[in-house]
Design goal:
By secondary structure, the protein is of the alpha/beta class. Strands 11-12-15-14-13-16-17 form a seven-stranded mixed beta sheet, sandwiched between helices. It is globular and about 90 Å long. The N and C termini lie far apart (72 Å).
């Protein structure tokens, strides 16, 4: 056995770990890299410098694909345990958090394996989830996010780590509330740690010492938060446990045998790989428009501007749609669309002529993004010697409320209304709007120019525009080249469930021999399928379909929708600006008579410093964001709707009519006397049952049965986390808490049965 060296390899969903172990179980070399689906090439690169002639055997984990010729394959969990036993004399549990999965292995007092608990088919709380958020904040990578998080010493915003969509929504809210990037990064790390702890540690006592392994163990901020949340100090392991454990298990298996006499050495890298035929199987026809016309996105002038604050590094894309004449004068409406990933502006003439469009990244700084757009507008007007007068300004998008306050907008309107207004202006006969933005996706139907139905995605990020950007970056494809590289490409099928699982499937496709362009095309089909199954009601899709949002500029994605629906898809040259355009059109339709309140194009030169405080006037304790402008304090975040200057809580019912109270009075009834021997039915005040409490109480009363409800339950989510023993969304977790409340002897004595009906719903159309 002397001189024997084992090569341990662990291939995960996004990365590869390699270790070289001697016969004495000494690790002499480790290597780590992201494979981006190019597994063989990545392994070859990692093995550069390794003397393969000295390698006696190759050990791999079971997650490693079959392209590797391994002498032994070890279950990933067994490998982790073997590595932990080798490096630590005493331990009570192993926490492993990787790119796609995380789990907790526990041992009894004698060090024997006791149990294992892991996350479900959800990527929240994993390394890839955190990496996605780092990319969304344009931080370059998770290392930058961690570095920023370590700089934070104050309170962090609450950011959900259940799903990328929830996290993105909370990121926007945090940005609106004035949190800086360090606080947001720390909040993301805390949210991830909170999700791990809630999933793995709730309702059970974990024995120490606790060993933390996996890629996320390198994130010091997450480690700190987990230690604080659990009260358990962790030993953080930097050695890749999967690869090391597989090698150690093979060494144990070889113990007592002369490996050199029974096996040949490896001489070349190619000896490590198996020779197998490619198994390419296509699921989709080439992406090509056949039924739809597509715009050339023509304009009179297009350029990039860097006007404004130089610390905001993203350029402004400027598109001019009119022939400008020097020394001319324009009275214009200005519409803003402040989204989670991008901020847009449109200048609209009084005759409803689109003068110009401006587009830039939000980058977690919506106010600065707005100021950059204002700087670009001013630069254009000055360069062309145009006298530009803004006669009205409005805002839409997820950041509309805060920014609307900051710029003193004349109109603040929701995205559905703004996009619908633009769609009807573009095509009066439109009956369906497909809108895929950076943060969310929306499905809207119209009749005679009026919105009849609107649905927004709520639980999945796989159908959003930001995912296209993330996958393009991961696969080394510039976003501007995405369309050209995916047109006329056939492709395999990829998961439409979640961004992380879609990423995993794409990596598998590339490993199976599909080229990068085919994998990129499969992403578009997956996004289309996700949208049609999880957002839209396919039977309600009409014949005049408008595709809006910046993602509509990806012609191959439009082709995927056309191929799936077998209907023409209409795209406007203003598709990426329709939110801002709709806002400007609504301003023009109002025919403003009073002078605009808008602070003016010169607002970009005014520094805006935000701060936060807690409102003490009621139990809501609203966290409000404040900005001082021209001697006036602008506030956002007061749930009661009061003016900041009014130091008195405003009643929720502005009209004096409370619909909830009225409904309560209408449905109140006097229960009939019941026989004490009759059972009592407990009805949880949660999920769909909450809306129907009065109905079910009346129903059981007519049957002569007593009822109790859980309306008095105040800590349902907290209680539910400890009894659910599985990952659920917050509403379902709360249901567990409400049921527990009804079963408790003190809160609801005498409950004999819990009423939990299943509701079946058939979508109309």
């Amino acid at each position: 056995m002397s001189g024997t060296r084992i090569l341990g390899i662990d291939v995960g969903s996004v990365s590869i770990s390699v270790v070289e172990v001697t016969a004495e179980k000494e690790i002499i070399r480790t290597a780590y890299a992201f494979h981006r689906g190019k597994i063989a090439e990545s392994i070859e690169s990692l093995l550069d410098g390794t003397r393969l002639s000295e390698i006696s055997a190759v050990a791999a984990t079971t997650s490693t694909p079959a392209i590797l010729r391994a002498d032994c394959r070890t279950d990933n969990r067994v490998a982790a345990i073997a590595a932990c036993r080798h490096f630590h004399e005493k331990f009570g549990a192993i926490l492993i958090v990787g790119a796609e999965k995380f789990g907790l292995i526990q041992f009894d007092g004698d060090g024997n394996y006791a149990n294992f608990k892991a996350n479900t088919s959800c990527a929240a709380g994993t390394g890839s989830f955190l990496d996605q958020q780092a990319q969304r904040l344009n931080l370059g990578g998770i290392q930058t996010l961690c570095k920023l998080a370590t700089q934070n010493t104050v309170a962090v915003p609450k950011i959900a780590s259940r799903c990328a969509v929830f996290a993105k929504t909370d990121l926007v809210h945090a940005q609106q509330e004035g949190y800086n990037l360090a606080q947001i990064c720390d909040g993301l790390c805390y949210g991830l740690a909170r999700n791990i702890v809630d999933t793995l540690f709730s309702g059970q006592k974990v024995r120490g010492p606790l060993v933390f392994a996996g890629g996320v163990a390198k994130n010091r901020v997450v480690v700190r938060h987990i230690e604080k949340l659990t009260g358990i100090e962790m030993a953080v392991e930097k050695i890749p446990y999967g690869a090391a454990g597989a090698a150690l298990c093979l060494l144990d298996d070889m113990h007592g045998r002369d490996r050199c006499q029974t096996e040949t050495f490896y001489h070349y890298v190619k000896d490590i790989f198996t020779r197998r035929q490619s198994r390419k199987s296509y699921c989709y026809e080439p992406l090509k428009l056949k039924l739809s016309s597509y715009p050339e996105f023509e304009c009179t002038e297009r350029y990039e501007s860097s006007a404004g604050d130089p610390t905001f590094r993203h350029p402004i894309e400027v598109e001019i749609y009119i022939e400008t004449i020097s020394a001319s004068r324009w009275d214009a409406y200005l519409g803003f669309d402040i989204g989670s990933t991008s901020t847009k502006a449109v200048l609209l003439g009084q005759d409803r002529t689109v003068l110009a469009g401006f587009y830039t990244r939000t980058s977690g700084r919506p106010v600065m993004a707005i100021q950059k757009l204002l700087a670009a507008i001013s630069e254009w007007a000055d360069t062309k010697s145009i006298t530009l007068k803004i006669i009205g300004a409005g805002a839409t998008g997820s950041g509309r409320k805060f920014v609307g306050k900051i710029i003193a907008a004349d109109l603040v309107v929701d995205e559905i209304t703004a996009h619908a207004r633009a769609a009807v202006w573009l095509n009066p006969n439109v009956d369906t709007i497909v809108e895929i933005g950076g943060q969310d996706s929306k499905f809207t139907t119209l009749k005679n120019g009026t919105v009849t139905l609107s649905i927004m995605n709520t639980v999945c990020a796989a159908g959003t525009g930001s995912f296209i950007e993330e996958q393009a970056e991961k696969l080394g494809c510039p976003l501007a080249d995405y369309t050209a590289r995916t047109e006329n490409q056939r492709s395999p099928m990829a998961s439409d469930r979640c961004t992380v699982f879609m990423e995993r499937d794409i990596n598998h496709c590339i490993a199976d021999g599909f080229c990068v362009d085919e994998a990129l095309a499969s992403t578009l089909h997956a996004i289309c399928e996700n949208y049609l199954t999880k957002v839209a009601i396919e039977n309600n899709i009409g014949d005049k379909i408008l595709f809006q949002g910046a993602t509509a500029k990806n012609q191959a994605l439009v082709a995927a929708f056309e191929q799936r629906l077998q209907k023409p898809i209409h795209v406007s040259k203003y598709c990426h600006l329709t939110g801002a355009l709709g806002t400007a059109l609504m301003l023009a339709g109002q025919k403003l008579t009073d002078p605009t309140k808008f602070r003016g194009l010169g607002f970009y030169e005014q520094p805006v410093v935000t701060r936060s405080e807690i409102c003490p006037l009621c139990g809501n304790h609203c966290k409000i964001t404040l900005a001082d402008l021209d001697g006036q304090t602008v506030a956002y975040g007061l749930l009661c709707g009061r003016d900041y200057a009014a130091k008195k809580r405003r009643k929720h019912s502005y009209s004096g009519f409370d619909l909830l109270k009225q409904r309560s009075k209408i449905f109140t009834f006097t229960p009939q006397a019941h026989n004490r021997s009759e059972p009592t039915i407990g009805i949880p005040a949660a999920l769909h049952l909450y809306e129907d409490l009065y109905f079910w109480r009346y129903f059981f009363n007519r049957l002569g049965l007593r009822t109790k409800t859980s309306e008095g339950c105040r800590d349902a989510i907290k209680a539910g986390k400890y009894i659910a023993e599985a990952e659920f969304c917050a509403p379902l977790t709360a249901l567990h808490g409400h049921v527990q409340y009804l079963l408790g002897a003190q809160q609801a004595p005498g409950v004999d049965y819990i009423f939990l009906p299943n509701y079946f719903e058939r979508k109309s159309g």
